[in-house]
Amino acid sequence: MNDANDxxxxxxxxxxxxxxxxxxAEVTGAPTVxxxxxxxxxxRFARLAAEGGDPHGEARFCDALLARGSRVLDAGCGTxxxxxxxxxxxxxxxxxxxDPAMLAVAxxxxxxxxxxxxxxxxxxxxxLTPGYDLVVxxxxxxxxxxxxxxxxxxxxxxxxxxxxxxxxxxxxxxxDHLPLAEAPFGAGEYDEWCAAAGLERHARYSTWDGSPFExxxxxxxxVHARPAEPLLPExx
Length: 236
Known about the structure:
Residues 1-27 are annotated as: Disordered. By secondary structure, this protein is α/β, with parallel strands linked by helices. The protein has helices at 23-28, 35-50, 57-64, 81-88, 100-109, 150-159, 187-196, and strands at residues 71-75, 92-97, 114-117, 132-137, 161-172, 200-205, 219-225. Strand 2 (92-97), helix 5 (100-109) and strand 3 (114-117) form a beta-alpha-beta unit. It is globular, with a radius of gyration of 17 Å.
């Protein structure tokens, strides 16, 4: 199993607008985290790498789906671990997170990607240019959104994809893969939200290493695709 499937792999979940309180705030006790928390979060993965662990499973998984030089959006990027690694692998990367402390670490440690402070619930307001080859929401981003905002967030992520582009999301389905007492939704419900956003299910896995997904899996790596635009008849 890839180390990044850890139960405490929780990045900034993008926040919540208005009076909604996201589950990330419930976990941390505040809508955003302290500078110390952000630094400690980043240091955790640095220690993992130093001890011979694999902190880049998500990036490697996404890279295998992409042509070199692809446009990638890391939604709920936290301290930028995934986007930074994909940039090192030759992709054009953008990261968005609602947490200023997390983004400060990303900007300091990985100046290559384009980092934006923004709320995934109001992602249209960030002003991103559509046409991404891949959008990744790793680190339990979707389960930690404010309850009831999941459909709107997925729809906005889908609109940023080019035709044929991919939405890749990793999420815990059981408490041992979540910082929550219970999973807020299941794999089937997530599929329904993606379908409502016009996305088609491409593949399911139970780890970022690509292990097959089973009905009793505690973790889901889901790949959904925006359908390619139909070709026009040759006589038109």
